[in-house]
Amino acid sequence: MKYLTLNDGNKIPTIGFGVFMIPNDGPTYEAVLNALKSGYRHIDTAAAYFNEEDVGKAIRDSGIDREEIFVTSKLWLSDNGYEEAKRGIARSLRKLNLDYIDLYLIHQPYGDVEGAWKAMEEAKAEGKLHSIGVSNMSVALWNKFVPHFNIKPAVNQVEFNPLFQQKEIRALMKETDTKLEAWYPLGHGDASLLSHEIITNLANKYGKNPGQIILKFEVQDGVITLPKSTNKERIKTNLDIFDFTLTNEEMEAIRQMDTGKGSHNPDAPGVEERLRSAFVIED
Ligand code: A2P
């Protein structure tokens, strides 16, 4: 596994296992244990995934040292605010049943983001959160909030894949050495990505599958990637990308695949309202 160093000095495994939409009370527990057995050391959950309990239990039962596993969770939108975020952080720690969370993110950057960030900065100082970051920040949302932060975000977790390379926000994030984390790194299974000629030609050349070529491009480009798979074989082989290197020309060819468009536009009208009503977090 390859690691990147975040702007606060902490190290993060470049490939993580995401548990969005996997139910609690069994399925997430099994999936995380299996991922850890397959070699993953980075698990990405969120309060709004409703499976933090299973994630924590699998980590405790795995027999792997806690320090070897990197756990991310996220504050839900209804907890954006200073007091609300303090409660949200305490709730995540309680549900995960862990002493600290490696990385905690503002899941959706609307409402009192500055208040929530202040609570996260304090929790970092207290050692409850080791690194803190944001998610789904467009250029406009970044410019609205990040200049007011004391600690600059360690990561911004956004939609990213060869068809949607987020060039503008990446340029901005360079100024604070904020790393990009990719959700939908395989385009959510989009055939126009997975069967793109550039990708399939490289898959043939290197004896890898198209998903592995895409993940390699991302990791080689300095992105932390969170591929999703329910297939045991692919869960394992998606980690098996460290025995080859794409040439500069190949990296450039994939860079040219960018369409500048993805499935989620954080600036679209009505997004905040739709997200606010999507999930209700309970204690
Ligand atoms: P499956 O669960 O059958 O493996 P994303 O991470 O962008 O949301 O994409 C997830 C989709 O990509 C799922 O449909 C998953 O299907 C598929 N997928 C995961 N790994 C690979 C791979 N190595 N090659 C092709 N498709 C993959």
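^ adenosine-2'-5'-diphosphate complex. The mean pLDDT is 97. The longest strand covers residues 129-135.
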